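User: Just a sanity check before I run the rest of the batch. Below are the structure tokens for the first item. I only need the designed sequence back.
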């Protein structure tokens, strides 16, 4: 599908660059929304993920499954905003938490990462077992990578109930995202990630002494050092660069065969040009790509609107797919 026309997003006038468009909603946007229940899903390897459900009173067969970004969780504004809008339009919503992200540390030494969509697939299968017949997948940043990977790495696996996949601010090239976050102007994002990850590494060391070593952690200055020391060995990769190559979703996009939408912003401080999969969209009739001039990273706020442009776009794309059926 050729690159879609560039949408115009009316950002608040004071959000005049990609940094503000990324930071303000992350820190200060509030969404009046509450999940109705939490469920723990036991995984085949003995670990677990926690699922937060928003279920309409009337029995529903339509569900949106929302996947958060790196070190996020189901309470992030972009998850709850998406869940609220879909719930107000006759969907149930499920915001699930990756391993270690629900407020309780996971049981195994490993964590979660861009290259493993098996937990999301388990969540999808669980939802289907509950009777959902029309499922829309939405993910942000790393969650966008997982969302697209779930429908791309093994197209024959994709259940008939999964009707669409949508990703926002997706690091299609992990190397590109790592390079972007390694620049001086983006050090604040990098340091925030390393600080949050460091707390978990230090806790994991207490749980798994001899397997995870947190000594000298505070000397780590970038993702390459972190991924060489922790991500790669814990998850079966040779080193950080092997992880970036094999865990990037970009090379898999050609396999997608259900309606899928990727939305990126040119002023996203987390992404470089190699995260914009223009050729893949042009050569795959099931893959739609929109590149906005503005929006930041997982921001997409619009003036005078309680919902973001991303939330409204995800709903409109989902409804257009379901109406075709």
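Assistant: Here's the designed sequence for the first item:
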């Amino acid at each position: 599908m050729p690159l879609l026309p560039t949408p115009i997003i009316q950002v608040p006038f004071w959000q005049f660059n990609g940094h503000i468009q990324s930071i303000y909603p992350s820190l200060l946007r509030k969404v009046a929304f509450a999940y109705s229940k939490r469920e723990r899903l036991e995984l085949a390897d003995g670990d677990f993920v926690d699922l937060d459900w928003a279920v309409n009173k009337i029995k529903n067969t339509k569900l949106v499954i929302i996947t958060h970004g790196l070190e996020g969780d189901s309470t992030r504004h972009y998850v709850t905003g998406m869940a609220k809008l879909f719930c107000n339009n006759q969907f149930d919503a499920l915001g699930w938490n990756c391993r270690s992200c629900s407020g309780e540390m996971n049981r195994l030494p490993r964590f979660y990462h861009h290259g493993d969509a098996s937990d999301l697939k388990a969540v999808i299968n669980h939802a289907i077992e509950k009777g959902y017949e029309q499922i829309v997948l939405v993910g942000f940043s790393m969650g966008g990578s997982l969302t697209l990977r779930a429908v791309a790495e093994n197209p024959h696996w994709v259940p008939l109930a999964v009707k669409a996949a949508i990703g926002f601010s997706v690091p299609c090239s992990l190397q590109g995202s790592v390079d972007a976050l390694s620049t001086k102007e983006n050090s604040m994002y990098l340091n925030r990630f390393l600080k949050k990850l460091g707390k978990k590494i230090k806790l994991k060391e207490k749980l798994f002494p001899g397997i995870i070593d947190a000594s000298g952690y505070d000397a780590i200055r970038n993702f390459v050092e972190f991924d060489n020391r922790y991500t790669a060995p814990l998850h079966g990769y040779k080193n950080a660069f092997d992880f970036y190559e094999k865990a990037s979703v970009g090379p898999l996009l050609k396999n997608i065969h259900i309606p899928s939408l990727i939305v990126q912003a040119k002023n996203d401080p987390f992404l470089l040009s190699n995260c914009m999969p223009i050729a893949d969209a042009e050569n795959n009739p099931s893959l739609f790509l929109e590149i906005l001039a503005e929006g930041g990273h997982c921001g997409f706020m619009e003036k005078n609107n309680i919902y973001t442009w991303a939330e409204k776009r995800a709903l409109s794309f989902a409804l257009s797919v379901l109406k075709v059926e």
